[in-house]
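$ run holo --ligand "zinc ion" --emit tokens
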Amino acid sequence: MKPTHIEHIGIAVTNLEESIAYYEKVLGLECYAIEEVADQRVRTAFFKVGETKIELLESMDPDGPVGKYIAKRGPGIHHLAFAMKDVATSLKQAGEQGIRLIDETPREGAEGLKIGFLHPGSTFGVLTEFCGEM
Ligand code: ZN
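-- output --
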């Protein structure tokens, strides 16, 4: 298991449109997709910075994972996603090394990618996502 690059950085925001305007007008990036991920009860907006993306996450439900996160910690960096060739095997290998998994097996994320999360309690405080095509 070895990540090929940082696939994206997930950032929890309270207002997607205002946040998009910042990334576009101040940083000069272009929002190329807005997508609702019903499973995680968020609306997402994507920007490319080289090979890495910025994923803005606006909660659609105060009881959803991002809604709860913002209530507790406020907006800001939410998770770090590593690009993995094989998400299922990478999750399994992390589990075998004693890492607490949020997802034992991959599920469907934004952009049709397979994703799975490691628990921040096992990763020194960083909610960590594996992200890939299988
Ligand atoms: Zn993500």
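-- notes --
The longest strand covers residues 5-13.
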